Each structure stands twice: as C-alpha cells, then as structure tokens.
C-alpha cells in the first residue's frame, strides 16, 4: 500500500522553505503499520524539515511488486537521507536495495546526513560567533554583552527524547518517521535562531549574509541535487 499524504507539485514554491540549489531530506523508517504488518515509511522533507510527501509501504507488498517502491524512492534522489547516524539510514536502504536499480541505491548511499553532525556544526558556528564578539569587545570602549542564544544546542540524546513522542501518528512506523522529521525541523530551527541572533549585531554582519543552513549542511544538500542531475543527464 502506498499513502501519499501531501505531495505538492513544486515543493520549492513554499517560500519559507526555499533554499537555492537545495531540495531537502529523505527519511526512511521501519516498523509496524496500522494493521501490525512490517512496513517502510518514507518521508520527503524540505531543507527546513517540513514534510512534503509521506508514504507507508508494506514489505510483503513491495516484495511482490517493487514498481511502487521504485517510483517513491525515485522522488528522493535529489535529497540527502537523514537519520541519527549514517549506519541507521544505510541499513534500512540495505533492506530494500535488492528491489531498486543499482544506480539509485548508489546515489542515495552517497548522500547521507547524521543529525548529531548537524548539531555539532551549529555548535561550531556559535563558538565562531562568540569568538567574534570577544574580538570586538577587546577593541571597543563600550560594554559589549555576550550573545544570548534563545535555545542551547542539545545533545543527541536530549533531542531524541524530546522528539520521540508522536501522539498523532497513525502507526508505529509513522511515529518513527515523524520523530525523525521533528528532529530535523528542530535542528533547522536552532540554526535559524543562531543566524537571527548573530545578525542583530551590526559588527557581526561582516561575517556574511544569513545562511539558510550551516555551511557544510547546506553544501551536502546542494551536492545531492548536483549528483542527481548528473545521474539523470
């Protein structure tokens, strides 16, 4: 069974999610569906973590006929698979790899993100901004306050616990996919808060215009788009 909960014709038409050169993320999860049968959940996310398409596919059905699975996974090729660690994402991909064309599997395996790495990058950027404040303080005759971050960057365990409860989920496998979706959205929001806080200080604007995502994260999403275009060319 395939369930497409929300699949807009052009996800980039959502202004708040528009990131030039990037499409977003893909989430894979395995678990029981609403009938208790083992299933694969596939969530397609924007760069900011907003769901733009969601499917639940039963393993017994796709094993008999992989056409629907291939059609859904093809929609992910310009995105990065994302999970708590790279091994989790690739292990799920490994369960369905024999049903997919080899180039499709290779493309997805080459574009994988781990949420803890994204949290670390946000922490690194905040430290860079804090250091810039200290440099400015050393040269200024005025009293310069330290940057006050609206929310501290959480540890992996803290964020996982915070996003694990999904009471509106229709099934355990949907809950798993929604938990990952919430974690991606929360991480993107941390970055938005970071750039807003930084850009309020006029002397920190020399560090550059606000970025929609941290540099390495953004580069990986853009690489996924570029590799998809090269594969289909």
TrEMBL record:
Protein name: Uncharacterized protein
Pfam families documented for this protein: DUF6218 (PF19726)
Record organism: Micromonospora zingiberis
InterPro entries: DUF6218 (IPR046190)
């Amino acid at each position: 069974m395939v369930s497409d909960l929300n699949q807009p014709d052009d996800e980039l038409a959502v202004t708040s999610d528009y990131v030039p050169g990037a499409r977003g993320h893909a989430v894979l999860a395995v678990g029981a569906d609403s009938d208790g049968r083992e299933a694969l959940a596939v969530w397609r996310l924007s760069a900011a973590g907003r769901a733009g398409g969601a499917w639940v596919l039963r393993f017994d059905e796709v094993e008999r006929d992989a056409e629907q699975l291939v059609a859904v996974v093809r929609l992910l090729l310009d995105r990065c698979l994302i999970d708590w660690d790279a091994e989790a994402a690739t292990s799920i991909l490994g369960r369905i790899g024999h049903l997919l064309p080899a180039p499709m599997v290779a493309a997805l395996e080459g574009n994988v993100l781990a949420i803890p790495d994204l949290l670390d990058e946000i922490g690194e950027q905040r430290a860079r901004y804090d250091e810039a404040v200290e440099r400015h303080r050393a040269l200024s005759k005025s009293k310069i306050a330290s940057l006050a971050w609206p929310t501290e960057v959480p540890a992996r365990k803290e964020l996982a616990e915070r996003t694990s409860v999904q009471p509106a989920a229709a099934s355990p496998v949907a809950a798993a996919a929604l938990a990952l979706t919430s974690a991606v959205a929360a991480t993107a929001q941390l970055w938005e808060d970071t750039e807003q806080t930084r850009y309020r200080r006029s002397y920190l604007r020399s560090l550059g215009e606000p970025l929609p995502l941290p540099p390495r994260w953004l580069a990986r999403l853009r690489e996924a788009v570029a590799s998809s275009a090269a594969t289909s060319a």
